[in-house]
Specification:
glycosyltransferase activity, transmembrane helix, golgi apparatus, 2 domains, 18 helices
Length: 480
């Protein structure tokens, strides 16, 4: 590329416009100073390249081109990772690997299965098979714990094709801290200071690294397998849940991907892991086609348990509606032998249902939402916080394209009935929503981390990475 063309490509820019959070609203003079500094570096490198490349050895010439490419940025066709490089912090093992090595400490007496089982196969758990099902079921289904996303994500990051050992060229920096598993260790029987001790030590470790200093951690991100509320403990009372990790001053700078976000801008919700982890794009297409051919004999269904301790529980009202309707199939997860933990049992129910009810439970979101989408079943929500304000990188902004909303208040007051509302959905709208739900399947699944998903980069992991890179690019452009 000629000198003047290279300069034009570098210097002519467009305003950064992002539909994600943290859009800049004012010009920051530090942006211009940073631009002038980069421009000066570029000129010096190019002059060096023009004067000395003629006599330089081949290896030095190649190295010089790599430096120009990383600092100036030639076209993406020459470097497909341009703007996508991620640097991974090599954390002390106490923050991640030791938790897996000593995973028995994470298992509670009330757990049906040891957590040591779930850390198998890069975090997706042991493979499960059913002799009564087809090969597409037997080769891609695993016993995956819904709270183990940080392990799954870390193992996917290790195989991310745009990793770099040079943090200077990185667009984002990943912190592989298993925050949720660490908190799980200290949730019961420990005081507030113990619950945040590891997080406090992590922040102190990060602040000593040179990578932290450039943006005070605003280009750093981590992943949590627990909801954001678990890390925003407001007092030191022993009875209060969770830790105050996200209230630590420096922790507020980092972005956190979590299965359920709060109202804070640096917390972004990503899908719960399901039990379906394909290793090729063809397997995803096969599954989508299988869901299109299902005989859906139930108008709607619900899999879940009641919440008797919660006053005005939407779940209890839903169970009453389902039991009173011949159009509904109920899987009561509080009953003996309910098999709600069996993914084949859930897929069999959701695969035979047109609509799947998704009320809040212990929190606003639930894994069942993604199980229903995986089964091609149209989700029905009763609170906007269950999906619409959560998964902005993975679900359509226009929620009417893939779901139905019923007011929980109207349900409890008797002004709304579930069966009547769903019967009012036209056949054309029903078919359109069903197809949209099936189209979403690749976006909400995490591929098998032991192999790279072929033919697509649109699974839940890659969409999350794209979102992180865009968010940090916006922060950097705003001079934040």
């Amino acid at each position: 590329m000629k000198f003047h063309a290279l300069m034009r490509e570098f210097c002519v820019g467009k305003p950064i416009i992002s539909k994600w959070r943290n859009q800049c609203r004012r010009t920051n003079y530090s942006t211009y100073l940073w631009f002038l500094l980069k421009f000066s570096i570029v000129v010096l490198i190019l002059l060096h390249h023009l004067f000395f490349s003629m006599d330089a050895p081949t290896s030095s010439h190649h190295h010089s081109k790599k430096k120009i490419r990383s600092l100036v940025g030639e076209s993406s066709s020459q470097d497909s990772c341009l703007g996508r490089y991620i640097y991974i912090h090599d954390l002390p093992k106490r923050f991640n690997q030791d938790l897996l090595t000593n995973c028995q400490i994470l298992t509670r007496p009330t757990d049906k299965t040891s957590m040591s089982v779930y850390v198998q196969n890069s975090g997706i758990g042991p493979q499960i098979q059913n002799s009564d099902t087809s090969d597409i079921w037997n080769s891609n289904w695993f016993s995956t714990n819904q709270f183990i996303l940080e392990v799954i994500f870390h193992n996917r990051m290790k195989k991310y094709k745009c990793l770099t050992n040079d943090s200077i060229v990185a667009s984002a920096i990943f912190v592989p801290y298993y925050a949720g598993l660490d908190l799980r260790h200290y949730l019961w029987g420990f005081n507030a200071s113990m619950r945040v001790s590891s997080g406090f030590d992590l922040i102190n470790w990060l602040k000593q690294r040179p990578q932290w200093k450039s943006m005070s951690g605003k280009d750093h991100f981590l992943v949590s397998g627990r909801i954001a509320r678990d890390f925003r403990r407001k007092s030191d009372r022993k009875s209060e849940w969770g830790s105050n990790f996200r209230f630590l001053p420096d922790c507020k700078n980092m972005s956190m991907l979590t299965i359920e976000s709060g109202p804070w801008e640096n917390e972004i919700a990503v899908p719960y892991p399901t039990s379906f982890h394909p290793s090729t794009g063809d397997q995803v297409l096969q599954w989508q086609n299988l869901m299109r051919t299902q005989n859906r004999s139930y108008l709607f269904s619900f899999a879940g348990g009641s919440r008797n301790r919660q006053k005005k529980s939407t779940r209890n009202e839903i169970i009453r509606h389902c039991q009173a309707s011949k159009l509904c199939k109920l899987l009561d997860c509080n009953s003996v032998g309910h098999k709600c933990d069996d993914p084949f049992n859930l897929m069999n129910l959701f695969g035979r249902s047109i609509f799947c009810l998704q009320p809040p439970g212990d929190s606003l979101t639930r894994k069942s939402t993604f199980d229903s989408i995986l089964a091609g079943c149209i989700p029905v929500f009763f609170h906007p916080g269950s999906a619409y304000t959560q998964y902005l990188w993975h679900l359509p902004n226009n929620y009417t394209k893939y779901s139905v909303y019923i007011s929980a208040k109207g349900l409890r007051s008797g002004k709304a009935r579930i069966d009547e509302t769903l019967l009012q959905v036209s056949k054309d709208d029903e078919l359109s929503m069903s197809e949209e739900v099936i189209r979403l399947i690749p976006w909400i699944i995490y591929a098998d981390g032991r192999s790279r998903l072929e033919s697509t980069e649109d699974d839940a992991f890659y969409l999350a990475i794209k979102g992180v890179l865009k968010r940090i690019e916006t922060l950097r452009g705003c001079g934040i």
